[in-house]
Amino acid sequence: MGNQRESVHGMWSSRAVFVMATIGSAVGLGNIWKFPYITGEYGGGAFVLVYLLCIALIGIPIMMAEVLLGRRGRASPISTMKRLAREEGASAAWSLVGYAGVVAGFLILSFYSVVAGWALAYVFQSAGGGLNGITAAGSASVFGDLVGSPDQLVVWHTVFILMTTAVVARGVRHGLERAVSVLMPALFVMLLIMVGYAYVEGDFARGFNFLFEVNFSRVFQVCSGEGAQIACRVSGEPLLVAMGHAFFTLSLGMGAIMAYGAYVPDHASITGATITIAVADTLVALLAGLAIFPIVFASGLEPGAGPGLIFQTLPVAFGNMPGGHLFGTVFFVLLVFAAWSSSISLVEPAVAWLVEVRRWSRVTAAFLVGALAWLLGIGSALSFNVWSGPEYQVLGKTLFDLKDFVASNIMLPLGGLLIALFVAYGAGRHMALEELSISRQRLFDAWWFVIRYVSPVGIAIVFLNSVGVL
Ligand code: PFF
Fold this sequence. Notes:
- It is built from 18 helices and 2 strands.
- By secondary structure, the protein is mostly helical.
- It has one domain: Amino acid/polyamine transporter I.
- It has a two-stranded antiparallel ribbon.
């Protein structure tokens, strides 16, 4: 197993630390902010089902592929892809997967950081008592005031980029290991308590049904409006967005997992680790949905409210529950940490690569990468105010939406497809067999079948469907 290569960037001290750090990368705004809002926009249960299928049939097998490539190459994704392509006699063009991943990382961080900035702002809103006794309308106006102010958004975005850069500059292991193993479980417990609150105070049955009742016609429909006014059109978009979200939430397809895989100890089992990470990530998303939708329905809010959904909904719960002042503050602090441990992994591939090829210190590399992401992020912040008008939109999307759409729904699945194809066809069976070292042959064969046929064909079908070919 392995090839006894060492990573110049350090190693995780154990498999458990890798699992924790990768859960830190996977669990973030994607689970608590994005999953509820896109589920609300695409109509609930049918979307959730497609998302779960994508996690199982595409996400988990590709995550195993990413980790095994990372461990085999033991370098940044770009260098790993170059090195492995050379060793396996495949084309050097496979390294494009690494370069595209770096670009996707920048794009994602440039909107992720703005939303993380909202969470930071809400820590202070909540701590200052600004959410006490708040109504649904009041909460919508607090959110509207925040996103309407370019100055505030840019300040919080700047703070978050600095936080991210500071950790990456020190090396991913320092601080992250300990922080993540305490804070992730804390976030989990917090979500459980909020589901309890939603059960008692919210319209739990309606929220639950919204998430889990599958109306198959909605798989291929995008609807807008409400009640009798509802208008639906046939579209491949829900499928594409559900698949894109499976990649986004597992941090797949851009090299983040490959970069973390490079620091995995030689003898650690990849299969078990991957399944643990994917299950934890999925549970957090479903708990977030169960905490939010009952409150959405009980307070007469709109599930399709868009990116502001949790920021308009949760304050209504915090503002009216006993101890909500403290509870809300702690919740937003944990949300910031969850976003922080994810954003670190967005820049790690680029920083590791710059350290390798330019021989820069981590500090220089991290600050350069941070500065570029910061600059790109200004456009995302302005998308909610000065650049929100139709004259600044492309294909009906603001810059913020466009970056999310291109990175999550196109670049990540495409990266994932190429990773699957490289492992299955570019490198071949012997490499996967050696790295995965699954003792049960049947299990390996099943994974090998999925990575060769099921995942690539699945991604191709969704892509073709979304452009109207299928
Ligand atoms: N998985 C993170 C989340 O769900 O919030 C987002 C993310 C992190 C996406 C790292 C991609 C990535 F490489």
